[in-house]
Amino acid sequence: MLFTRESDYAIRVVRALKDGEKKSIRQICAVEEIPEAFCYKIVKKLEHAGVVEIVRGAGGGCRLKKQLSELTLYDTITAIEPDFAVMDCVHHFCSRNTDKVTCKVHKELLSIQYAVEDLLKEKMFRDILDD
User: Fold this and answer.
1) Angle, nearest 10°, between helix axes 5-16 and 25-32?
2) What is the tens place of the pLDDT at every residue in 96-108?
3) Within 10 A of 45 (CB to CB), how many other CB atoms are there?
4) What does the alpha-carbon distance between residue 82 and residue 97 come to, in Å, rounded to a whole number?
5) Using CA atoms, how far apart are residues 3 and 41, in angstroms rounded to an integer?
6) What angle do CA 57, 58, 60 make, to 5 degrees?
7) Which positions make up the signal peptide (predicted)?
8) What's the count of helices (H) and strands (E) in the chain, helices before strands?
9) Residue 17 DSSP code
10) pLDDT in tens, 15-55
11) Helices 5-16 and 36-48, interaxial angle, to 10°?
């Protein structure tokens, strides 16, 4: 499975905001080595998913909207990649599936997909960002 760089950066954004304080995009980017233009796009997606809150204006910035004890890796990754998959055929048409036969590879990949999703749902940021 390949998580995109965007998902990696989203996890970094959450890490930068772990203290609950409001931070500017520039501050987040400096600490987490994220290109500013990319960070704006990521933060917007995280806001849409309810992960962060954007405060506009002169003293603006963003902060986590959820507590670290309520936020999972799954929440963050699916905010960026709602249809992430170990392989395209997991969520899309597999040409090997027919009405009578299911592709054994597809079936195995689907099992792996569910296992990865379950693992990501178990990983709370509270547990992985604890200093």
Assistant:
1) 110
2) 666 666 777 777 8
3) 18
4) 24
5) 17
6) 60
7) none
8) 7, 2
9) T
10) 999 999 999 999 999 999 999 988 999 999 999 999 999 99
11) 80
As a whole number of angstroms, the distance between CA 126 and CA 131 comes to: 10
Q: Which amino acid is at 25?
A: I
- Rounded Cα gap, residues 21 and 1, in angstroms: 33
Query: What is the residue whose two structure tokens read 């962060």?
Result: 52
pLDDT tens digit sequence for 60-69: 899 999 999 9
- The pTM is what? 0.85
| pLDDT tops 70 at residue 114 | yes
Coil, helix or strand at residue 131? coil
Q: Which residues of 17-28 are buried (b: 16+ CB within 10 A; e: fewer)?
A: bbeeeebebeeb
